[in-house]
Amino acid sequence: MPRFALLVEYHGAPFAGWQRQADQPSVQGAIEAALAKLEPGEHTIAAAGRTDAGVHALAQVAHCDLSKDWDPFRLSEALNYHLKPAPVAITRAARVEDDWHARFSAHERRYTFRLLMRRAPATHDAGLVWQVSHQLDAAAMREAAQHLIGLHDFTTFRSSICQAASPVKTLDELTITEVDGWSGPELRFFLRARSFLHNQVRSFVGTLERVGAGAWEPERVRDALEAADRSACGPVCPPQGLYLAGVGYQDDPFQAQK
């Protein structure tokens, strides 16, 4: 059976997350239903990461096995037709080797988080940013973020229901950029690692927001990390500002499609 990689973009608001669920809409379920319109029968796809309810993706990666050796462009076009009106798009498809796996072949995940700072309610960016009504000290947040980069036990910053075998991970990058967005001043967080723990990014951002607001000193983030205790974490921020921005592979299956 030919295997295809799919580059997937979606707005997470209508979904209970990526993973298929029996009684709630999911991104995985929407794509599998579209595949069943092309080739009748049961379809199970795998993804590079399982985003939570309300989290978006700019470049999620999944793979599927099909009976027909589809032209990748025609496959993406056909899936997009059957995905309507769900806010999910297959931006590229590519034929891959039978042993290629969207999750296990990946060596890097990249996330972006958007934080909007303004008092008036967001309109055009509603559901796409986390909005706070106060200005934040980006320099203090950057100082605090340095404590999180590298190899650490991230017990403090993972959900109590996280299923990862170990809390020890390496965070390769956490940068914070000030952006003059359409709706007002934003802070954009860019995070890069081989893999992330459940709620790790949202725990980071919620904690760093406390530093930016002046409620925490930057060194308190170091102390929270070293505590290896979930109760030492700051607030977990809401999901709507979080985007799975990309997945890295040794050989990019979509390179030939660009």
UniProtKB/TrEMBL annotation:
The keyword Isomerase applies. Keywords: Isomerase, tRNA processing. Homodimer. It holds the Pfam family PseudoU_synth_1. GO terms for molecular function: RNA binding; tRNA pseudouridine(38-40) synthase activity. The keyword tRNA processing applies. Its EC number is 5.4.99.12. Belongs to the tRNA pseudouridine synthase TruA family. It comes from Thalassovita autumnalis. This is tRNA pseudouridine synthase A. The active site is at D52. It catalyses: uridine(38/39/40) in tRNA = pseudouridine(38/39/40) in tRNA. Formation of pseudouridine at positions 38, 39 and 40 in the anticodon stem and loop of transfer RNAs.
